[in-house]
Amino acid sequence: MNIHEYQAKELLKSYGVAVPAGGVAYSDKQAAQLAEEIGGSRWVIKAQIHAGGRGKAGGVKVVGSVEEVQKVTDAMIGARLITHQTGPGGSVVQRVWIEQASVIKKEFYLGFVIDRGNQRITMIASSEGGMEIEEVAKTSPEKIVKEVVDPAIGLLDFQCRKVATAIGLKGKLMPQSVKLMKAVYRCMRDRDALQAEINPLALVSVGEDERLMVLDAKFNFDDNALYRQRLIAEMRDLAEEDPKEVEASGHGLNYIALDGNIGCIVNGAGLAMASLDAITLHGGRPANFLDVGGGASPEKVTNACRIVLEDPNVKCILVNIFAGINRCDWIAQGLIQACNNLQIKVPLIVRLAGTNVEEGRKILAESGLSFITAENLDAAAAKAAEIAKG
Amino acid sequence: MSVFVNKNSKVIFQGFTGEHATFHAQDAIRMGTKVVGGVTPGKGGTTHLGLPVFDTVVEAVKATGADVSAVFVPPPFNADALMEAIDAGIKVAVTIADGIPIHDMIRMQRYRVGKSAIVIGPNSPGIITPGECKVGIMPSHIYKKGNVGIVSRSGTLNYEATEQMAAMGLGISTSVGIGGDPINGTDFVTVLRAFEKDPETEIVVMIGEIGGPQEVAAARWAKENMKKPVVGFVAGLAAPPGRRMGHAGAIIATEDDTAKAKMDAMEALGLYVARNPAHIGETVLQALKEHGIKY
Known about the structure:
A: 6-stranded antiparallel sheet; 4-stranded antiparallel sheet; about 25% strand; B: alpha/beta
């Protein structure tokens, strides 16, 4: 689960991390009021959507008067922001974050990820802040430093000092850096985050002084741990998610929309991915990924058909079930129920295998409905691709 | 022989009296698995399916000599149950659960350091040595005895490959599902090492998916350490980047995570690669022929 920048900043602030004085606004008037409360003479207005790449898409503006804060916010809220991460449909801006503009002296990168290779939390830092870390990894990998955290011991001070030194945070800045790194680590661990990214972490002038401040932050949390993270779960913004995917998950289905015309209903994530692959290799284009999971009841199968058919591009549906915990006879009954309840007009290509396969095939054959059956994955994918083309 | 479990394995079920554990324990017993009891905290001293129930794993091990545990405990408590099994001296703990918090798995893997116990899963169909021992949820009837070792992240894709091979008369020595989560208790390399040592296994099928570095690491290990041929497949050619494709671990985060990149790397490292999920069986047959292995 992702959260907005303003939520990430508020979360980090609660762990003692310095963020610019700011707040969230849902209207232009509120924005103007907020700017006056925050004070200062220059403000940054940042559109709050989950996708990255906001700056280039016009979602981040710096202004020098309260009137401009109001004007820019008015234009931003309700507008559709299209970035390289939103897809062509873009994302509608519902709220903006307003903060005092900082006097930036230098930008750094600080991130924490779960490294799948060593199966531990790994801190990643770079002196090249403000640009994507993947880009830095490509162009100047020597500027990236990493430190692996032993989960039984936690992130140690000396590890932070090592990393701080390596990216140029020396002298007076060292104690601040250590404190900040440890706070972000604690936040990641205590809140079941999968990823915490601070980019940029900036060295800013505050009067005569200089200090480290988080100018942008991104978090991704473990859906499987939300049951014990109420504070995080409450930050979920359903408007940022695909409504069909949200609906499907409510029915215990895992649905991801794609841009083809062959609807897919499969059990198991691996077989579902492989079914998309087989369709693609036969020149077809899958319309979706859908895993019905184990124990698919007739109702679940009906819901799956309904959700797949909401996509007007779907020309046929491939049903591929390898029953382990599932039973083919239940799936067959579910398909018949779906056909009767939903008046499905597109062809259904059905491949059944595994537990109770004979019973399942018999039920389909005797139903009087025109299912196209296939013996195996290859034949099923070939038929689906052929029908979708024709 | 076979790997990790065989006809001598003594199996307990943690969460024994639950609905799923009961159903799968019955199936395991039907297929010949030596199930010796189970654990449900609070129900110690009772019996279930005619077998003793204990409050703790350590009591169960002491009373029954169990060395394998099927951990059918809900995700929030699963990592704790795994560590309890390891503490009690269980040699192979198998966890089916889908939805264990990843930070729990990080701690569990740390707990395992320096201990020899094997953890299979989570988010896995389990492990089966046909005709001898089943610890999992797979449809046992499709697994026939043979000389192919199979290891996969996905459950249903493991069934798919097994059926393709069965249609060609090829059977399985042991099937191991390492699971679809980002952190697997046992990785591909550990299973490949076991298959290489196992006299009943003559060829290995490794089925991966998008996300994470372990398929390529395993292929590299196989090139350097294995004499037995390995057939690889990676699911997710058609998957868009940045999306979790059903499995928590199946997400393209970097260029190296894609199915194509992984299969290209496998091929470059000398593995047989099935580029199409429908051709896994055929590819195994071709490898067997080229290596002059009887089937």
